[in-house]
Specification:
Radius of gyration of chain A: 27 Å
Structural class of chain B: mainly alpha
Number of strands of chain B: 0
Number of helices of chain A: 18
Order of helices and strands of chain B: HHHHHHHHHHHHH
Strand content of chain B: under 5%
Radius of gyration of chain B: 23 Å
Oligomer: heterodimer
Order of helices and strands of chain A: HHHHHHHHHHHHHHHHHH
Number of helices of chain B: 13
Shape of chain A: flat
Chain lengths: 337, 274
């Protein structure tokens, strides 16, 4: 409220000196007569429209990498484009959608797999990250070195980590299956179908728990100590302090971290591709998540049109699911005021 | 006297957690020093004479071009970071101070974070094929902007909003133009935030895989793309793969260790307000 008033008052100050002419005619008149003034004059056209001018570079990039591909992919979804004729494909109407939704159940199966994968791994990551953060913040020693060590996996490329696990989980030369068998546990195999799904989730948990840990740890540092002390004086138990003092103040931050993680997890590609190649044979395997499915249809089966229709369905699903919580988070400061 | 059971339990969990994260990386480091016969040996050997040939192989074998890949990764990441910071900072300033475009514009920018990269790959591939941008560094830079600009805009917008508006107002009273205010006041005040965001975009660009997989082959291959080449061509040469993994994670680890404070800040900045 106060800020709005300030901005408006500045504008009032700024406007005082300007002429009453409309901005477009001033622009052209000045551009022809005194071009330098457009840019250097305090009340020049450039200065007054700065709020739009400064966005031009970003908007031009966005047009190229966001609007153009989205329109083009919608168009491709209605055509029979493949690797040979993608420059002038034939229009086939809803045939691609019929093939991925009704004739084959690729989209629905892949969507269900993706959602199962996301809920399994993100829930475990969230729980593990929160528990670790609570433990680390309750200790007096060794906190700093732990935070450093747990941050390091986040900066290594997922592909490199995928390669690493590919070696260690290998059923013939891997150390992890070897020692599990020594202990007497039957190890999960990457080549088996259902087991590879669980392994993928485990690797994902390994890779991304540090992210949610960092978010949880950083938000725990922001909980005001005097609130905890007050609860302590009132005789709150350990659990009570957490449930009624700490939890409410970290929930907003945790939910942002959670949504970011869900978005990234829905897009999972790198590690699944490296570890399983997306599964060989039929288009939809146990680890064929949405990104993998689109990649396979487009680049292994060369069906660009079918892949594009899958992309459109994925986009529709993601935007209905995520746009509202995402926007609310972006503007949460204003709503709180 | 009460036994500190909970504390002991906490330390045990902590040690296990650190072990789970440190052991695989140490194991890969050991693997990179082994000969081919030792790599596939089970039970594994923990004591052996280290060999450094794998590193030399990876770096100087003609088919892999790892040095070139390192250079490509560095060029792409640095240019993406610079461009994304400039575009994102300017837009974030107008969004934070003037609410330019309202929610529609902000959502348009953020929605690029939701769109999976594989969705925009076929159209961009066709476009790049006609523009002859495939397997070039500028093409890769354009693609990497898709996921980096939204992060910059998001973080810088909230960072600028935290800055006191009064300082800018004072400068305006003193007769400074908006551009001067941005350059001389907002930019220096934003420096810590910009550093954190720059680190974040650099790491994300360095680690990116799917665009590099589809759009590069020989000339513009990045480090992650090279790692994928090991899987297909030298699928069983684990010792070289391990050496290349260590070589590509080493710069990032050293980098992360030096700028650790900024890194934690950058990673949590979208979510946590101090």
């Amino acid at each position: 409220m106060l800020r709005n008033f300030r901005i408006r008052s500045t504008h009032f100050l700024k406007r005082k000196g300007t002429s009453e002419q409309s901005s477009f005619s001033t622009f052209f008149l000045t551009a022809i007569e005194r071009p330098r003034e457009l840019f250097i004059h305090r009340n020049g056209w450039f200065e007054r429209n700065l709020r739009y001018v400064l966005n031009i570079p970003l908007i031009s990039v966005l047009l190229l990498v966001s609007i153009f591909p989205l329109l083009y992919v919608i168009y491709l979804g209605f055509t029979d484009a493949n690797m040979m004729n993608f420059l002038n494909p034939k229009f086939v109407g809803l045939q691609n959608y019929y093939s991925v939704l009704i004739r084959n159940d690729w989209f629905v199966v892949s969507l269900a797999l993706t959602l199962g994968f996301v809920s399994l791994s993100v829930t475990s990551e969230f729980a593990a990250g929160l528990v670790l953060a609570l433990i680390v913040s309750s200790l007096r020693k060794a906190t700093r070195i732990t935070v450093v060590l747990l941050t390091l996996p986040l900066v290594i490329a997922p592909v490199i980590l995928g390669n690493m696990f590919r070696y260690m989980l290998h059923s013939l030369v891997g150390v992890i299956p070897f020692y599990l068998e020594q202990v007497g546990i039957k190890p999960l195999s990457l080549t088996s179908s259902t087991e590879s799904f669980i392994l993928m989730a485990l690797v994902d948990v390994w890779m991304w728990t540090p992210f949610l840990f960092l978010i949880a740890y950083a938000s725990l540092q922001t909980v005001p100590q005097h609130l905890i002390d007050a609860a302590l004086v009132d005789g709150a138990s350990r659990f009570g302090r957490f449930r009624y003092v700490v939890w409410p103040s970290i929930v907003p931050n945790l939910s942002v971290g959670l949504i970011l993680r869900i978005i990234d997890c829905l897009k999972t590609f790198d590690v699944v591709y490296i570890l399983t190649g997306g599964g060989i044979g039929s288009p939809v395997g146990p680890v064929t998540f949405l990104s993998i499915l689109i990649y396979k249809i487009t680049f292994s089966y060369y069906e660009i049109g079918v892949g594009a229709s899958l992309s459109v369905l994925t986009l529709i699903f993601l935007s209905t699911l995520l746009s509202r919580p995402f926007l609310r988070l972006f503007f949460r400061e204003e709503e709180r005021k | 006297m009460k036994l500190p059971i909970i504390r002991i339990l906490s330390y045990i969990i902590l040690v296990i957690a650190i072990g789970i994260y440190a052991l695989p990386i140490m194991w890969i480091f050991l693997t990179s020093l082994k000969t081919r016969a030792e790599v596939v040996l089970l039970p594994p050997k923990f004591i052996f004479t280290p060999h450094f040939e794998n590193y030399l192989n990876v770096l100087f074998q003609p088919g892999i071009n790892f040095l070139q890949a390192l250079l490509n990764s560095l060029t792409v990441s640095l240019s993406v970071t610079a461009i994304a910071l400039i575009l994102g900072f300017l837009a974030a300033y107008t969004i934070a101070r003037y609410r330019t475009g309202g929610k529609t514009y902000a959502f348009w920018i953020l929605s690029m974070r939701i769109v999976p990269p594989i969705v925009i790959i076929p159209p961009m591939y066709i476009l790049f094929a006609t523009l002859k941008l495939i397997d070039t560094i500028p093409g890769l830079v354009i693609l990497y902007l898709t996921f980096n600009t939204p992060i910059v805009v998001w973080i810088m917008k909230s960072y600028i909003e935290e800055l006191p508006y009064e300082i800018e107002e004072q400068a305006r009273v003193d007769g400074a133009s908006t551009l001067t205010i941005i350059r001389k006041i907002t930019l220096p005040l934003c420096a810590p935030g910009l550093v954190a965001v720059a680190i974040l975009t650099f790491i994300f660009s360095w680690n990116e895989f799917i665009f590099a997989l589809v759009f590069t082959d020989l000339k513009a291959a990045t480090v992650t793309r090279t790692a994928e080449k090991f899987v297909t061509l030298y699928g069983t040469m684990w010792e070289n793969m391990a050496a290349s993994a260590i070589l590509s994670m080493l710069p990032m680890l050293v980098f992360a260790f030096i700028i650790q404070k900024w890194l934690v800040r950058g990673l949590t900045m979208g979510a946590v307000k101090a």
